[in-house]
Design brief:
The complex is a heterodimer.
Chain A: H1 2-22, H2 24-41, H3 50-72, E1 86-88, E2 93-95, H4 97-120, H5 128-147, H6 151-169, H7 176-207, H8 212-222, H9 232-252, H10 260-267, H11 270-293, H12 300-328, H13 334-361, H14 367-409, H15 425-439, H16 445-461, H17 466-494, H18 508-527, H19 530-545
Antiparallel strand pairs in A: 1-2
Helix pairs in contact in A: 2-3, 2-5, 3-4, 3-5, 4-5, 4-11, 4-14, 4-18, 5-6, 5-11, 6-7, 6-11, 7-9, 7-10, 9-11, 10-13, 11-13, 11-14, 12-13, 12-17, 13-14, 13-16, 13-17, 14-15, 14-16, 14-18, 14-19, 15-17, 15-18, 16-17, 16-18
Chain B: H1 4-23, H2 30-54, E1 63-71, E2 76-82, H3 84-103, H4 111-130, H5 134-143, H6 145-155, H7 160-188, H8 190-193, H9 202-211, H10 217-234, H11 243-250, H12 253-278, H13 280-285, H14 287-307, H15 311-331, H16 345-380, H17 391-394, H18 396-410, H19 416-431, H20 433-457, H21 476-494, H22 497-520, H23 526-532
Helix pairs in contact in B: 1-2, 1-4, 2-3, 2-4, 3-4, 3-12, 3-16, 3-21, 3-22, 4-5, 4-6, 5-7, 6-7, 7-10, 7-11, 9-12, 9-22, 10-12, 11-12, 11-15, 12-15, 12-16, 14-15, 14-20, 15-16, 15-19, 15-20, 16-18, 16-19, 16-21, 16-22, 18-20, 18-21, 19-20, 19-21
Classes of the chains: A mainly alpha, B mainly alpha.
Chain lengths: 547, 533
């Protein structure tokens, strides 16, 4: 009895003294949700616009995450950090630089999305509490995904993101398209979640634990020396990991699990589509990296499983990028086009995860090669983070401009964009920056991000020849993507505005400022990447080596 | 007044500063913005001349290197500097942009946007010529794409959308290949930098390539193929030239002048500054193919020009033909099969110098030809060679100027086109007699299509095409442009040392280090050579 008593006391102690404090950003968001729902009940407070409460909550969460990040990694390298990476909630979540960075990124993104909805007025006054509850709830789920340290939390995070997302996609009530999109999303999502849950239970059943840091060790114990793919245990492990990855691939809209993406994006409001395309990618990639690294250990057999998975991810990434880019070419709806572009970008990012796993889990002859591979895998994560960071701004920018233009011309068809360049120069200029960044042209941030990813894939080519194919696919896809991205610019600038088309006029101040606020970072990240690369490098090195 | 380092930075960024200023001017103040841009390009040109004035070749190495750390974790620097090779091209760029700006006066559509893009383009081009960091080079290289796409796509002719996207796609494709080569060299140089990160420093990379034992022959061959395709698209050489006629024909006159005068030179410059120094073994390995491609370009371009009925398309194909000489001149690097040493290295040096001169000469004569086409097109709004004729009587001064400029393109002795072609053909003789003869026949074909065009456009009894009433003599702005182009045609033709004074020593140094690089690289079949040593 005494033992259990001390265990409970210890757990309570850990939870109240460390875990809750470090979980503050999520708690603040949860609190905001409660306040927003209460507002609806109390007529006195109902006068306060909900979006301001949501914005306040998002700002506080961002502030807290920023605070934690700067305590983990002081801006001045000479001062010792106040916080240190530690598992929290008895190892269910991991509090470290990597996770905190993503939580910061997600709350920043939340701020930008809420600002956008304020500008476009997409949820009306009556619906606002519901909408922002869903938005904040999904963000909490994503934050949990980013810091998951346990298979249970992996599933919980994914589901907590997905369920509000389904509702948000169908939020434009009364629109048939929107409901259809939501239904498709739910069906696909439920299927993928089921498969993932099956994979998780297989893994947990095999290893007897759900904790990801212990997974590699346990796997090494059950896999015999020299066991190959013929060994039933190995086969089960591969199957289970693939199933978990199916769930993540669904969130990432990776080929062949991407079918929901164009439909859902077309049906949903552009604001929601922007949120889904960026935030759920950031969360899912963070989770994928954590899951991939869970195979790290000394066992050769486990490593070779992970290596094979890495190669598979590379091929999948190449296929996704190619498929996304080729499908985008025929689209005439802006949101559909951007949905396929999102798929293609997921492919590029997947390449860097693949390079990471290939480099980290390859067989090394000597310690020198190990050190080299570790340095190389560092740059993979660095590149991925950089890409996601740029992607946040450029993709949100593109979707935001689609939403803002929609409010003026009441259309999201590419043909209706003809000749807009002279009528709303700021929005079109913003779109130009975003599009050039999405293509990956210097001096935009998208170029440097792509450069970093190509470099990590290039490094992986020295390990396995398939990576040459992946690199080639990435390079060729850059050229492919030009075809459809340039159509947007062609419509806006080269084509004339049709006779009798509705005149577009914008009150420049809040909207223009918002667009510049999103687009200037895209340019800035391309011109001055130095400071960011150093930070990301540090984040990656803590994740990989603990230092 | 300014130190050379400051001057080179100013040359790169003055156009952007002016462009930035233009953003805040009123859209209606068209004339004011034009004058501003003219002043901006004039200042830039003046600065390039001032920089040329401070330059002394010394040992022919790169001078006045400015290096500022840009992205430290990747060893990327903002590193610029110049030698005679880049500096002469920089002056050419300043000149062509100034002249094109004068020719841009007739642009009436969205003037503000046009001028801003025009100036950004100038920054991109200048940046490429000054950049000594591969990453920076690539950034400037791609920066040119954006304005160029819009300049062709918005202000071009009827098929402008097609031409613009074609130009963009070709160049982007080349750029991606260059990017992969860049990554290869970055990766391979990691062992040499001392901190385990690779290098983008073009000077260091060239130095290591000259040492021969850093970059393996396989890497050099693969790298050279990637880089060469990237640059050959820009030059353009057969078979990568098909974007050029479309882009040239559809682009507005001033943009055609810039395309022909400057942008094509970037390809040649890239081969001289990047592809050869980084992969001497690969370059030598491919030399016969390169010379052959160059010769095919000369002859093919000339034949294609002969077949055109569109005046501007004919001039466009003449560019393919003329740029072929540049490639031949660079590539005539002969290695004796017996000794493995360079054979007739001085001829190769002569070819290189000829190629360099040809780039400058073509940079003057080709914008001139496009300008002549533009002048008549502005008046009669067609370019059909068969519907011209008799312009000499109607526009005597214009016809005289056009004759001089076209003769310069033809390569008449005493005008600028002559020196480069002769140097190249002479040096090709040392390399391969067959190819030299074929390339020399290109001279005759050139004379054929140029004389025939002159005859059809300017000579003859009377003009029978559309809009005869619109034919008026040149105005003073057009005359100014004409004179500005004619003077260097004569000056370079009579006194070629205007170029050679600056380029001789850098070229000699380059040839020496390339030869070292080739000799030092261990050959894949090295048993033969080691026994001979």
């Amino acid at each position: 009895m005494n033992d259990i008593g001390s265990l409970v006391v210890h757990m309570l102690d850990e939870t109240t003294k460390t875990s809750v404090r470090l979980f503050a950003p999520e708690l603040v968001l949860s609190g905001t949700i409660v306040v927003m729902l209460l507002c609806r009940i109390l007529p006195v407070v109902w006068r306060v616009p909900t979006q301001w409460i949501a914005l306040l909550g998002a700002f506080s969460a961002f502030g807290l995450a920023l605070c934690q990040f700067s305590q983990l990694m002081p801006p001045d390298p000479t001062t010792p950090p106040i916080l240190h990476p530690t598992p929290i909630f008895t190892g269910l979540l991991m509090f470290d630089q990597f996770g905190t960075f993503f939580r910061m990124l997600l709350s920043l993104f939340l701020i930008l999305t809420i600002t956008l909805t304020v500008l476009t007025g997409i949820p009306d006054r009556e619906d606002a509490p519901d909408f922002y509850t869903l938005l904040l709830g999904a963000t909490i789920g994503l934050m949990i995904m980013a810091s998951a340290n346990h298979l249970l939390m992996l599933f919980l995070g994914v589901e907590m993101t997905s369920v509000p997302s389904y509702a948000m996609v169908g939020f434009l009530k009364g629109r048939k398209q929107s409901s259809e999109a939501a239904l498709k999303y739910v069906v696909y999502g439920a299927g993928a979640a089921g498969v993932m849950l099956y994979g998780i239970s297989l893994l947990a059943g095999l290893t007897g634990t759900g904790s990801m840091p212990e997974m590699a060790e346990r796997l090494a114990m059950i896999v015999g020396q020299g066991a190959g793919i013929g060994d039933p245990t190995v086969r089960t492990i591969v199957l289970a990991s693939l199933m978990v990855m199916v769930g993540l691939a669904f969130k990432l809209s990776v080929f062949p699990f991407h079918f929901w993406c164009p439909d859902a994006f077309e049906g949903a409001a552009a604001e929601v589509a922007g949120f889904l395309s960026v935030a759920s990618k950031a969360g899912a990639f963070a989770l994928l990296v954590r899951f991939g690294l869970a195979f790290s250990g000394h066992s050769k057999e486990v490593s070779s499983i992970a290596f094979a998975l890495g190669i598979g991810l590379g091929v999948l990434g190449a296929a996704t990028a190619t498929f996304g880019n080729l499908s985008a070419y025929g689209q005439s709806n802006m949101k559909r086009l951007l949905a396929y572009s999102t798929i293609a970008h997921a492919g590029y990012m997947l390449m860097s995860v693949s390079a990471l796993m290939v480099l980290r889990f390859s067989k090394h002859a000597n310690p020198e090669a190990v050190a080299e591979a570790n340095a190389a895998s560092l740059s993979c994560i660095e590149g991925l983070i950089y890409y996601l960071f740029v992607y946040l701004f450029m993709n949100l920018g593109a979707f935001a401009i689609v939403a803002l233009i929609r409010n003026q011309i009441f259309s999201e068809e590419l043909d209706d964009y003809n000749g807009l360049g002279t009528q709303c120069p700021v929005l079109c200029f913003g779109m130009t920056i975003c599009v050039f960044s999405l293509i990956g042209l210097p001096p935009m941030g998208g170029f440097f991000a792509k450069f970093a990813i190509f470099y990590s894939v290039f490094k992986a080519t020295s390990v396995h020849w398939v990576m040459w194919f992946v690199l080639g696919a990435g390079a060729i896809n850059t050229v492919f993507s030009l075809f459809y991205y340039i159509r947007i610019l062609k419509a806006m600038y080269v084509k004339p505005r049709p006779e009798g088309a509705r005149k577009v006029n914008y009150d420049l101040m809040p909207v223009g400022l918002f667009v510049l606020m999103i687009c200037l970072p895209v340019l800035g990240l391309g011109l001055f990447p130095a400071r960011f690369t150093e930070t990301f490098n540090h984040v990656a090195s803590v994740l990989l080596t603990g230092r | 007044m300014f130190s050379p380092e400051v001057l080179s930075n100013l040359i790169i960024f003055v156009p952007t500063i002016v462009a930035f200023f233009l953003i805040f001017t009123d859209k209606a103040a068209v004339e004011f913005m034009r004058v501003c841009t003219l002043v901006g390009t004039a200042i830039t040109f003046a600065l390039t001349v001032a920089l040329l004035g401070t330059y002394t070749p010394g040992d022919g190495g790169i001078q006045q290197v400015v290096a500022k750390e840009w992205i430290s974790s990747w060893n990327i620097y903002y590193r610029i500097g110049y030698d005679g090779i880049s500096l002469t091209l920089v002056v050419l760029t300043g000149f062509v942009f100034l002249v094109s700006m004068l020719a841009s006066w007739g642009i009436e559509k969205h003037v503000k946007g046009y001028l801003i893009l025009f100036l950004v383009l100038e920054t991109g081009v200048m940046g490429v010529f000054f950049a000594l960091d591969f990453f920076l080079f690539y950034v400037f290289w791609e920066v040119m794409l954006l304005p160029m796409y819009f300049l062709i796509g918005i202000w071009g002719g009827p098929r402008r959308e097609y031409a613009a996207i074609k130009f963009f796609l070709y160049t982007l494709f080349g750029g991606v290949l260059m990017l992969i080569a860049m990554l290869m060299y970055f990766f391979e140089s990691a062992s040499m930098t001392g901190n385990g990160i690779g290098s983008f420093n073009l000077l260091d990379l060239a130095k290591w390539a000259a040492q021969g034992n850093v970059f393996s022959p396989g890497l050099q061959v693969a790298g050279f193929i990637l880089l060469f395709i990237g640059f050959a698209i820009k030059v353009p050489t057969f078979p990568f030239h098909t974007w050029l006629p479309d882009a040239h024909v559809e682009a507005p006159t001033p943009i055609s002048m810039i395309l022909a005068g400057v942008l094509l030179k970037l390809g040649g410059y890239g081969i001289i500054r990047v592809a050869y120094p980084l992969c001497p073994y690969g370059a030598q390995y491919a030399s016969y193919a390169l010379v052959a491609i160059g010769v095919v370009s000369i002859v093919y371009g000339a034949f294609a020009a002969l077949a055109q009925t569109d005046f501007k398309r004919m001039v466009a194909y003449s560019s393919v033909s003329h740029m072929g000489y540049v490639l031949v001149g660079i590539a005539v690097w002969k290695i004796s099969e017996v000794t493995g040493a360079a054979e007739g290295r001085d001829y190769w040096l002569m070819g290189m110098s000829g190629a360099m001169f040809q780039m400058i000469a073509h940079g003057v004569s080709s914008p001139g030809m496009f300008f002549c086409v533009g002048v008549i097109y502005d008046r009669v709004h067609h370019r059909d060679l068969n519907q011209f004729g008799g312009l000499t009587g109607l526009m005597p001064r214009y016809s005289g100027m056009a004759a001089v400029i076209f003769f310069a393109g033809l390569g008449l002795p005493g005008l600028c086109g002559f020196i480069g072609e002769v140097f190249v053909v002479l040096s090709a003789w040392n390399y391969s007699k067959t190819l030299a003869i074929v390339s020399a026949s290109g001279v005759i074909l050139t004379a054929g299509y140029i004389l025939w065009a002159l005859q059809r456009v300017y000579l003859g009894p009377e003009y029978k095409g559309p809009h005869p009433e619109a034919i008026t003599p040149m105005n003073s702005r057009e005359q100014a442009i004409g004179w500005a182009l004619i003077v260097p045609c004569f000056a370079l033709g009579v006194y070629p040392n205007f170029v050679f004074d600056y380029t001789d020593k850098p070229m000699a140094k380059l040839v020496r280090s390339l030869d070292d690089g080739y000799q030092n690289t261990p050959k894949p079949h090295s048993e033969l050579q080691t026994t001979q040593k």
